[in-house]
Design goal:
heterodimer, A: 267 residues, mainly alpha, 12 helices, 79% helix, globular, B: 273 residues, 0% strand
């Protein structure tokens, strides 16, 4: 009940400013175009034989579009905690929400879920526009096959972002830290380039990010592979879901204990 | 005497902005890191797609085979150019959201002093970042360009800056009249970003977007700077002439629209939150 109320509040606040929605979509498209056009200018076209050998997908716009859309959604819960909580702190409404007869974990989960859903809607639009701009061949079967993986990825991303929920309550302004982390994820998850160009230690490190596996599975499905052929990546994704939820919960409880002593604070 | 007072006010605004910025030290780290992410991505995309450090395809379009150098120059012009836009518009928005805009505008200084103070801090930061980036990019990413030609290109970066200031002033005038200017500025910045030619030659864009890119001062500045760095002045006469013409145009438009918006603001008042 409280969860749905928070989601409804966030949706209303976001969609009541149509220009804000348009600007968010535009940001999504422009950021994507920068890297795809750069890749195409360097390649002199859209197909890279080297990319196909290393990842199984040679069409660069498709490769980048899948990774990019998933990256955007993956950082969404993190952004919700970092900026959503900070916004309430600045407006002075955070304390009031904490004092309401709702569990703080419900409030924060509602925030993360609503931002994740909003970003998913935005990214669906960006994906559709990207598919049109770059003439990416799509079939209903590919989309349907990708859906369960996308849902599993969203659950993993929520758990991953939960790690930040406690930190933001305690440290308040961690926006720059989150920004650095988000861009680091672009690197370590091979969003715009194949991971094999990085040193082995970094490739091993990249396995810790749910996004790495989510992107690999969806790309695999797009080139016609079945679930069994990408089972290794799916298994990684499924293992990381409870791991990140567990780590996130423990950090959150620890941060909540400390915050109860030092206060939630305002701005 | 009046000039000295304005200079003191300018210094005061710049110092205030500097203090606000440096009170969040991690922002500085985050801003500097952004340059490395940008150029690092360019390098890894190029290596991942071609397996080589140079691109024949890019050379055919732009004259630059080294795609990292191409991206570095574009990134620096874009970073420098956005300084003016953000100095003019984000300064208004930040104060608007903080509820201090009315007070700042009521202070005994010209409004242009307020804007230029904001620009000054950002300009200083922009040069600070460049002084960090250039040597590190050369060491880390093996960026190669003729340093003498790079210095020769700087005056034309400043000529481009006149046009960018003009655009910033025009945008600042608009921002004063919007209830929620944040999304408008984001849209404007994204247009500038997409059409700046920072990461790719604008000739690969559809014709309509190419025309739009040519009409804004950013891509012509990037093109002129890149061409001067690669080939010197003589080969870049066309780019230089066009840039001077465009910058002059934006300077006039910016000044006129700024004067108009100031006049309007005196009649209808400023808004606050």
């Amino acid at each position: 009940m409280i969860l749905s109320a928070v989601v409804e509040k966030e949706f209303r606040m976001f969609f009541r400013y149509p220009l804000r929605v348009i600007s968010s979509i535009l940001v999504g498209i422009v950021f994507l175009l920068q890297f795809v056009f750069f890749g195409q200018a360097v390649l002199g076209g859209r197909y890279s034989a080297l990319l196909e050998v290393s990842t199984g997908m040679g069409d660069y716009p498709t490769y980048a579009l899948i990774g990019y859309v998933l990256w955007w959604v993956s950082v969404s819960p993190m952004e919700a905690y970092v900026w959503g909580v900070r916004r309430e702190l600045q407006r002075g409404t955070f304390e009031m929400n904490i004092l309401s007869p709702a569990k703080i974990v419900e409030l924060l989960s509602g925030l993360a879920i609503s931002w994740l859903l909003m970003d998913s809607v935005l990214m669906m639009i960006v994906f559709a526009i990207g598919a049109v701009i770059f003439a990416i061949p799509l079939t209903l079967l590919i989309i349907l096959k990708s859906l369960p993986i996308v849902v599993a990825s969203l659950i993993a991303f929520l758990g991953f972002g939960f790690v930040f929920a406690g930190l933001v309550m305690m440290l308040k302004n961690i926006g720059p830290f989150a920004q650095i982390f988000e861009f680091a994820m672009l690197f370590f998850s091979g969003v715009f380039f194949p991971l094999n160009v990085m040193p082995k230690a970094m490739i091993a490190f990249s396995k810790l990010f749910p996004l790495t596996h989510a992107a690999a599975v969806v790309r695999g499905l797009f080139v016609g592979k079945g679930y069994l052929e990408v089972w290794g990546e799916i298994a990684w994704l499924l293992v990381l879901i409870p791991v990140y939820w567990g780590i996130g919960y423990l950090i959150f409880k620890w941060a909540e204990r400390i915050t109860r002593v030092i206060g939630y604070g305002g701005y | 005497m009046e000039a000295i007072n304005e200079l003191r006010a300018l210094y005061g605004v710049a110092v205030k902005n500097w203090r606000i910025f440096t009170s969040y030290k991690l922002w500085l780290v985050s801003d500097v890191m952004m340059g490395f992410f940008f150029v690092g991505q360019a390098l890894l995309i190029g290596i991942g797609l071609t397996g080589e450090r140079n691109s024949r395809a890019l050379q055919q379009i732009t004259g630059y085979a080294d795609y990292v150098t191409f991206a570095v120059l574009g990134f620096m012009v874009l970073g420098f150019g956005l300084t003016f836009l953000s100095g003019f518009v984000w300064s208004v928005v930040d104060e608007l959201y903080a509820g201090t805009l009315e007070y700042s505008f009521a202070a005994p200084m010209r409004r242009i002093t307020f804007f230029m103070g904001n620009v000054l801090t950002r300009l200083f930061l922009s040069f600070l970042y460049m002084s960090v980036y250039v040597p590190i990019f050369i060491l880390l990413f093996d960026v190669r360009f003729n340093f003498l030609n790079f210095v020769k290109a700087l005056p034309f970066l400043l000529i481009g800056a006149i046009g960018m200031i003009g655009l910033g002033m025009a945008a600042a005038g608009l921002v004063l009249y919007l209830k929620d200017p944040g999304p408008f500025i984001t849209i404007l910045e994204m247009l500038v970003f997409a059409l700046s030619g920072a990461m790719y030659p604008i000739s690969i864009l559809p014709m309509g977007l190419q025309v739009l890119a040519k009409a804004l001062p950013y891509a012509p500045t990037s093109e002129a700077v890149r061409k001067i760095v690669a080939y010197g002045y003589t080969a870049s006469v066309n780019e230089i002439s066009y840039l001077m013409l465009l910058s002059g145009f934006y300077a006039i438009i910016g000044y006129l629209s700024y004067k108009w918006s100031e006049k309007q603001a005196r009649t209808v008042g400023l808004k606050s939150y």
